[in-house]
Amino acid sequence: MILLTGGAGYIGAVAVRELLDKGFAVRVLDKFLYGDYPLADVRNRVDVVEGDILNWDEAWLDGVEAVVHLAGLSNDPTAEFNPDANKRLNTDATQAIAEACKSKGVKRFIFASSCSVYDRGMMAEDALQNEDSPLEPRAAYATSKRAAEEILLDMADDNFQPVILRQGTVYGWSPRMRYDLVVNTFVKCAFETGELTVHCGGEMWRPMVDVTDVAKCYLACLQAPMEQVGGQVFNLSHKNYRILELAHWVSKALEGIVDVKINVEYGSQTARDYRVSGDKITQATGFRTRRNVDESAREIAQKVQQGINKDFHNPRYYNIKWLEQLVEMQDHLKRLGSIF
Ligand SMILES: NC(=O)c1ccc[n+]([C@@H]2O[C@H](COP(=O)([O-])OP(=O)(O)OC[C@H]3O[C@@H](n4cnc5c(N)ncnc54)[C@H](O)[C@@H]3O)[C@@H](O)[C@H]2O)c1
């Protein structure tokens, strides 16, 4: 059985289906911050556990042979919103789960890290980063991911073999849709207003990867001989794109569906900017990403045309909006006691 923490999230919901399709038994552990609807049609095929990674229960590892750890805060704005919670979730809880795995003999542990650990800002040298490049993460999110990586690598030995995947920014359709990721945002904007706005001249580089490719990479890391992947860090990127280029690809993908105008703004120098090499994972496992931005953008557009995820104003599609609302409601409900 494979345990997926955060299995009801944007990537998790796709990964669960991918694992089921390949015949794996799957347990999902999730707090369902965004709801449990992403698992609705697979619920009877998955062992679903509602729980919080901050309160780890060792029974969650019963019968588990490998863990894919995705749960936590998954972008910059939510990490900045509550840096202390971000550290507890992304670093401390990762350590606690890894220790639980190690003491229970669960050797294979795939950790969803982020290429944002390479970010040093727009003024940094424009070099291709590989897994050995020096790191100086600055933002709360990247810092918490890097701290977790270091802890996991220190713990690695014959009984515990973490696989660290530094994922690029993900795009594509998921049963738990996010419109706060750049390509998905562009598709949403195209439908909403017909206009895509890129900031800082759209010059920033970003490694990008499709959500189904990410799920397939988890499979590759679960199936690879341990000596090929254990105790190692891998970038996971299909291709590096400048943001302006992404806008053009989305515009092209939506030709014949919506007319798109691209607005370029200049100014702020604070955007994330980095390029990475994704070669190492292919060399180690033979795994290759397949899905281009235009293909994935078209798939989202087709869903929207079918009326799926068309309610663009729904705050659940935007992690920071949703968490801000939950916290506001939580405070409000504390005062109200009950509503009626
Ligand atoms: N989406 C991306 O572009 C991207 C890029 C790089 C890395 N990552 C990493 O991949 C992982 C998955 O990202 P995603 O886009 O699917 O995020 P997501 O926000 O859609 O999903 C996160 C899931 O974790 C769950 N969760 C949050 N706190 C929890 C807790 N305390 N206990 C149990 N469950 C909890 C949420 O309910 C949610 O289902 C994250 O670790 C993220 O940092 C994502």
Into which percent range does the helicity of residues fall? 25-40%
Question: What is the general shape?
Answer: globular
N to C succession of SSEs:
EHEEEHHEEHEEHEEHHEEHEEHHH
Q: Largest beta sheet, briefly?
A: 7 strands, parallel
Let me know the number of strands. Answer: 14
Bound molecules: nicotinamide-adenine-dinucleotide
Average pLDDT number: 96
How far from one another are the termini? Answer: 44 Å
Number of domains: 1
Low-pLDDT segments, ≥5 res? none
CATH class type? Alpha Beta
Radius of gyration, whole Å:
20 Å
β-strand percent reads 15-25%
CATH topology: Rossmann fold
The CATH architecture assignment turns out to be 3-Layer(aba) Sandwich
Return the structural class: alpha/beta
Spatial strand sequence of the major β-sheet: 3-2-1-4-5-7-11
Number of helices: 11
CATH superfamily, called what? NAD(P)-binding Rossmann-like Domain
SSE map:
Blueprint: E1 2-5, H1 10-21, E2 26-30, E3 47-50, E4 66-69, H2 76-81, H3 83-104, E5 108-114, E6 128-129, H4 140-155, E7 161-167, E8 169-171, H5 182-192, E9 195-198, E10 205-210, H6 211-223, H7 226-229, E11 232-236, E12 239-242, H8 243-253, E13 261-264, E14 275-276, H9 279-285, H10 293-305, H11 319-336
Parallel strand pairs: 1-2, 1-4, 2-3, 4-5, 5-7, 6-14, 7-11, 8-10, 9-13
Antiparallel strand pairs: 10-12
Helix pairs in contact: 1-6, 3-4, 5-8, 5-10, 8-10
This protein binds nicotinamide-adenine-dinucleotide.
Summarize the structure.
With 340 residues, the chain is α/β, with parallel strands linked by helices. It has helices at residues 10-21, 76-81, 83-104, 140-155, 182-192, 211-223, 226-229, 243-253, 279-285, 293-305, 319-336, and strands spanning 2-5, 26-30, 47-50, 66-69, 108-114, 128-129, 161-167, 169-171, 195-198, 205-210, 232-236, 239-242, 261-264, 275-276. A seven-stranded parallel β-sheet has the order 3-2-1-4-5-7-11, sandwiched between helices.
